[in-house]
Write a structure and sequence with these properties.
The complex is a heterodimer of chains A (247) and B (251). With 247 residues, chain A is mainly alpha-helical. Chain A has one domain. Helices cover 66% and strands 0% of the residues of chain A. Chain A has nine helices and no strands. The radius of gyration of chain A is 24 Å and the shape is globular. Chain A starts with a helix and ends in an 8-residue tail after the last helix. Chain B has a domain of 173 residues. Helix content of chain B is 38%, strand content 24%. Chain B is built from seven helices and ten strands. In chain B, helix 1 crosses helix 2. Classes of the chains: A mainly alpha (247), B alpha+beta (251). At the A-B interface, helix 5, helix 6 and helix 8 of A face helix 1 of B.
């Protein structure tokens, strides 16, 4: 009897050590592993939701007339996508597969309404800017796409990274497009007149406008967003050979 | 329990709906007082800003007209809140609480319109709330008239869902500044408001009842024109009374 005890202790100790080793190695994997970094960085370039997967185009057209709403929208999407990915990933083993799309929709809609309500109470001015985009977040196909394709089959932390990465990839393109549309369309950036002030006549104007420069009103209309996205895709493909199809 | 069974699916769906409903209604009700306060303060800020601009002079000092400042000094400047019928008769009602959106759905004879009378730096201003429709959704605003109830001192516009960069530009200072000093009566004495006109060539002409439109925002602009004309017309009877009562003559 007495001889048995130490053996058992050593066995459980070994088990503990194994568990410690496994969990610590898992934790290490969490933050630094190549796979995790790839989850985060892939959607920025190689697998960008807008330029490669051509998703989320509708909102990319609607809110890129100015830089500021584009930035606010990007931040809101980062928040909503990261946390709905996390929630779906937590629930992934208990969601009945027949109603999974409805569950995803409910989670996204709930997140968006929560964000909206909290902003209305504590950051009223920001919420006023976001007003119309809140609805656009719910209909953003990238969010549903990531929930379906990634969060349902992966762990919580990886899903969180995937949400952040994809939302950032989406936001990046949004901001690039909005930059060019606001610059050429209204001669401003974030509302500042970077190209000079346009007066009623050329004599009243300063900067480029004094030389006879005119804003291009076409940039304010939706078709131009599509053209700018097209140019972004062109530039991206010419720099990233991986994206070019074989034939 | 089998995850694909009907019973499990139903239980999951019901549980999810209950959890979401409780979470959302809890947030909504607990945040509601703060949201209502924000809306109330913003209304005060809008009314004051029509005649003070972005900064207000409080006790000799110029301070930025934030929502907090507005709610503090509102009662010092807005001396009267009137609830008027279409024929210009005052009613016994709390004018500040009148929802213009609701009034516009009523029969014309039952409508009540709020009018805010303010006194700022020795001058009297009449602030008229506006409401109409833009391209996508409601637009609204406030217009301050000087004591001749004809010259515009300033306007504030806001919207629910106009296109950013196009229709939404009606909230910008440069668009709202165009209305300053415009007249709401035309030469034949009719209340016509101010028209937002495409291809406007009047320059700085302040007596033609028109301002230049925003390119790309034609329908929102038309909404603004219509809103100004229709809402201001509702006050015509009362404006005539003010004119007759000789308040103009005192000046």
């Amino acid at each position: 009897m007495e001889g048995k005890e130490p053996k058992e202790i050593s066995k459980t100790d070994k088990k503990k050590e194994m568990i410690m080793f496994l969990s610590s190695s898992e934790e290490k994997e969490h933050f630094l592993s190549k796979a995790n970094r790839k989850i985060l960085s892939d959607p920025l370039n190689d697998n960008n939701p807008i330029t490669v997967q051509v998703l989320g185009i509708c909102s990319a057209l609607a809110i890129t007339v100015q830089l500021k709403p584009a930035i606010v929208m990007s931040l809101a999407v980062v928040f909503v996508m990261a946390f709905s990915n996390v929630i779906i990933s937590i629930l992934r083993n208990s969601i009945p597969s027949r109603i999974r799309i409805i569950v995803q929709l409910v989670v996204v809609a709930t997140m968006v309404i929560l964000v909206d309500q909290i902003l209305k109470a504590f950051a009223y001015d920001v919420s006023k800017q976001l007003s119309i985009f809140i609805g656009l977040i719910i209909t953003n196909c990238i969010i549903m796409g990531r929930l379906e394709a990634f969060a349902l089959g992966n762990g919580v932390y990886k899903s969180f990274l995937d949400g952040i990465g994809n939302a950032a990839g989406y936001g990046l393109i949004l901001i690039v497009v909005a930059f060019f549309r606001e610059l050429f369309g209204s001669g401003k950036l974030l509302g500042y007149e970077v190209l000079g002030h346009k007066g009623l006549t050329m004599a009243d104007s300063t900067g480029l406008y004094a030389l006879g420069y005119e804003n291009n009103g076409f940039f304010l209309l939706s078709p131009m967003a599509l053209i700018v996205v097209g140019i972004v895709i062109w530039v991206q493909r010419s720099r990233n050979r991986k994206l070019i199809e074989e034939n | 329990m089998d995850k694909n069974s009907n019973a499990y699916t139903f239980i999951f769906a019901i549980a999810m709906v209950i959890v979401v409903a409780v979470a959302l209604s809890f947030t909504a009700t607990s945040l509601q007082p703060m949201q209502a306060e924000n809306v109330r303060q913003e209304k005060m800020q809008n009314i004051l800003s029509t005649f003070t601009g972005d900064s207000i002079i409080v006790e000799g000092e110029k301070v930025e007209l934030t929502r907090a400042v507005a709610s503090k000094v509102y009662e010092n400047y807005v001396t009267e809140e009137l609830a008027l019928s279409n024929s210009g008769k005052p009613k016994e009602e709390d004018a500040f609480k009148i929802s213009l959106a609701k009034q516009l759905t009523l029969d014309e004879s039952e409508q009540t319109f709020p009018l805010y009378v303010a006194n700022y730096q020795g001058k009297t201003y009449y602030v008229v709330p506006l409401r109409g429709s833009g391209l996508w959704d409601a637009i609204w605003g406030y217009v301050a008239l000087e004591d001749d109830v004809n010259t515009i001192k300033g306007v504030v516009f806001d919207h629910k869902g106009e296109t950013a960069g196009l229709g939404a530009e009606i909230t910008t200072d440069w668009f709202q500044e165009r209305f300053v000093n415009e007249k709401i009566y035309n030469d034949s004495g009719q209340v016509v408001g101010v028209e937002v006109k495409k291809g406007y060539s009047g320059g700085d002409n302040k007596s033609d009842n028109a301002v230049d439109a925003i390119s790309g925002a034609t329908i929102t602009g038309d909404g603004v024109s219509k809103m100004m004309e229709e809402r201001l017309k509702n006050y015509k009877a009362y404006f005539e009374k003010i004119k007759k009562s000789g308040k103009v003559a005192i000046r």
